[in-house]
Design goal:
- β5 and β6 form a beta hairpin.
- The chain is α+β, with helices and mostly antiparallel strands.
- It is built from 13 helices and twelve strands.
- About 4% of the residues have low confidence.
- The longest helix is centred in the C-terminal third of the chain and has 21 residues.
- The radius of gyration is 23 Å and the shape is globular.
- It is 36% helix and 22% strand.
- The strands form three sheets. It has a five-stranded mixed beta sheet. It has a four-stranded antiparallel beta sheet with strand order 9-12-10-11, covered by helices on one side.
Length: 362
Amino acid sequence: MIRQRKIIHVDMDAFFASVEQRDQPSYKGKPLIVGGKPESRGVVAACSYEARKFGIHSAMPSSRAYRLCPDAIFVPPRFEAYREVSNQIRAIFWRYASEVEPLSLDEAYLDVTYTEDFSGSATLIGQAIKRDILTETGLTASAGISFNKFLAKIASDMDKPNGLYVIKPDQGKTFIADLAIGKFHGVGPATEAKMKKIGIHTGNDLRQKSLIELVNNFGKSGQYYFNIARAIDERPVCSQRERKSLGKETTFSQDIILLEGIVNTLNELAEQVLSSMAKQSMQARTLTVKIKYANFQQVTRAHTADQCLDRESLQHLIPLLLTRTEVGQKPVRLVGLSLSGFDHAKAEKTHNQLDLALSDIF
């Protein structure tokens, strides 16, 4: 018997900043920014809810964050500390879920369809997970619970911080109909603007568009938008996700214009990526180079080879790809390099999925 899926999306509240406030009590209740110093070229990696009241958000230049809140406390990120807490949290997830799909250090999808605890109630399971996280890490999390990943993700944002929001199967279509299109996960600012131009402002508006019209306007994503407007999302929670690409990037302390310096930096990044791939017995056929100019304009250039790329071929391809950019003519702020189109030398391990028939209680 096929059971109604029960998916939980757990999202830690202001994770990096909350870890800092936990470990340094004097930071509690104050606007805290994790990231580069105000005088640097860094950006905000995370900020506390106290800082968000000033309009500060992640990816904002630290200099602008300082102008918005001169009294804010700036601290450098401690990724080892965040990873340690993330591992604690994931261990808690596995107590309750048959599948856990991490999206980052601070959020994950959980499939609790087959969980017997609390008579299979996803709501009670979500509450237990939040309690365990608070007890064992001293941090709060928000949880969204629904019958698919799309709705669970949106639900986790509905009652932040320290919230829990449930969208039951019979509520899905109504919930989506009333939802502003800008709140849809997967609809960014550019897509939102394009949708509004053709009269799509809410989920109900989206539902009125035919599949052909959506595909004509949004390409392959049109099918996804057509489905989610009807509360359809069959994507499974996958514990093991195949990596699509592997890359590195770096921001220069000062803008650089010399072609030689940029080539040398990209070669160094290539060495790091090749080393990481070798450890995972991976080889790639596609090279992508990213350039961000001083004016923040960003371009990417890619090449796919007939054979797997090695150090020598990368050293040959990097300068060729740069000839298709304005490197050497315009100052550059950031460069990045990634490899994709993998051939895996080792077969990935497979795992059996549970096949149990348990309660449909939400």
